[in-house]
Amino acid sequence: MLTNDESSFFEILSAVAWVIATYLFFNLLRKQVKLEGLGKKAYWFAFYMLLSFFAFGEEISWGDHLFDYSHDLEIIKINAQKETNLHNINLSNLLSLEKDGVMDAYLKNLGNLLTPLFYLVLAFFWVFLPAIKRWISGFSIINAMPSPSTGFMLFFVVHAIMFIFIDYALFNVGQVFEMFISLATIAVALDILKANAQAQAIERENS
Question: What angle do CA 120, 190, 54 make, to 5 degrees?
Fold first, then answer.
């Protein structure tokens, strides 16, 4: 289960979770457009849906893990894992950097930079922005942003700290953390679905 192989349990579960997250955000987008038209809130759902779909595509190397079509493609020659995704590209070779140099350790597999950056982007939208939303309410696009609950935000932060500590202090849990992020994305979508349902129920009671 803890193997880094692309067919491991955690890799497969992550891919399935990203598909579910994509569907949930598509469903939220569809309902929002039906309710209020194509406004700022709908744009947020579309953004989250595309983000989830992109993560799914990268997880399965855009279908190569399923259909094994990459044998003659040029991209596998510059990919650290000989795959058709972007996050494993060997940028060090492309830029002809010195082997074992300062940047080579990071750029020989772009995932060393892009994966943490992706996690930070999600933390920014699902933890940091919701936490300071009340103080930047002058921006209409921020006001329209659908946010998860405070409980989820605490859940996300505590688990992220726990995984980072284990990863650095004990052993590599990268694949487990990837799975956690994909499952957390589902939790965000379900959290927002629940909040929307409660808001609509209150609105029906008041009308």
Answer: 45
Amino acid at 62: W
| Span 3-61, pLDDT tens digits | 555 567 788 899 999 999 999 999 999 999 998 888 999 999 999 999 999 999 888 88
Give the span between the Cα atoms of 51 and 39, in whole angstroms: 19
- Amino acid 53 reads F
Other C-beta atoms closer than 10 Å to the C-beta of 118 total: 18
Contact 87, 111 (CB under 8 A): yes
Q: Exposed (0-12), middle (13-18) or buried (19+): which is 178, by Cβ within 10 Å?
A: buried
Tokens 């998860």, located at residue: 148
Q: Is 79 helix (H, G, I), strand (E, B) or coil?
A: strand
* Model pTM score: 0.83
The structure tokens listed for 198 are 């409660």
